[in-house]
Specification:
The chain is mostly helical. 84% of the residues lie in helices and 0% in strands. The mean pLDDT is 78.
Length: 170
Amino acid sequence: MQTIESIALGIRLLGIFLFVMLLKDMPQIIESINLYKSISQGTGNLMYIYVGISIAAIFLSLTMIKFPISVSKLLYSKSAQASPQLSSDLEIAKVTGITILGVYILSWAIPDLVSNIIGLLQANTYAAHDEANIAYIWNSLITTIVEIIIGLYCAINSNGIVKLIARLRA
């Protein structure tokens, strides 16, 4: 099995996982939208953005399920794809595992980012005594941004991480 094929297998599994999680959360999302629309008319537009992002995530998960090779080619460097040097199965497994880990981190960090941004946009509706909630949202936003950076680095530069780990072990 080539590196691209093994990464594609992980991408397809993550696509299935993301699709199932989105389907599981869909009733809660619909209920939240109806609740926010009944409470305040001003936050309805923000909820439509959330719905749009949820629908885009469904299409992303279906793309990961239907076209995993194309997605894995985007994640794996072109120079490594064209390299005539054959890698060992262990190196392929390491690169594949780190790439899949990066995509998995991104699969929960990006929805968290959207949720935190919506929370900050609605912060003006909080009462004065809710300063702790606003601080919590800011802390969550910073944590989510760090998670996205780590996820992108793992997904895009998995060869570099494997080399770094090898140097640290030596």
